[in-house]
Amino acid sequence: MKIVLVGQGGHSKVITDMIEQTGDGEVVGYFDDLYQEVLVVDGMVRGPVQAAKRVVEENPELKLVIAIGNNRVRKEIVSMLGLPADQYATIVHPSAVISSHATIGSGTVVMPLAVVQADAAVGDHVILNTGAIVEHDNIIADYVHLCPRAALAGTVRVEEGTQVGTGAAIIPGITVGSWTKVGAGATVIRDVPAGCTAVGIPARHTQKEGENEGVKNYL
After folding, report:
1. Class assignment of domain 90-209?
2. Which of 47, 57, 153, 217 could be bridged to 172 by S-S, CB 3.0 to 4.6 A?
3. 136 is catalytic
């Protein structure tokens, strides 16, 4: 499988290394706005982000991965490119443990030592970072990022675009709303609404715009 990556920063380096380790694919190009035009240098295609659509449509054997850590930017690029889901590769590191009863969406990246248990459903363009744990019956929506060693107990739901920070823990049955940030090391013991930042043990979240209090402790 020939793969081109959108983005050429630190996250892209890790994905490139993962693809090399899987042995199932080969990175043949990078699209980043560092480049002004499409060029082939040492057999590697390079060009601006917008050019990825044309290059992939002209070479349908190519698969794409949005190799950018920012959740909103990933969504914006996917929307801009307008490519079908089957044009995106799903990358799973060989050391990751994925239940045969779990589902992983297109464009998603599952990094070393991550675990996805039975009947978990992981959406499209998700990042399951190093050592992240997705327990049974979790629902992880599109464009979520579970940072290294984030641990989600059973039946947790994480809505679109949310980031769960390094080492954060979420107890069973919790829902975390869309485009929320859970801070590193936080322990989430109550549902968290959309558009918030939740930090601490137990986690406290800043209120959404228009609410009266600045911080709510949801014990």
Report:
1. mainly beta
2. 153
3. yes
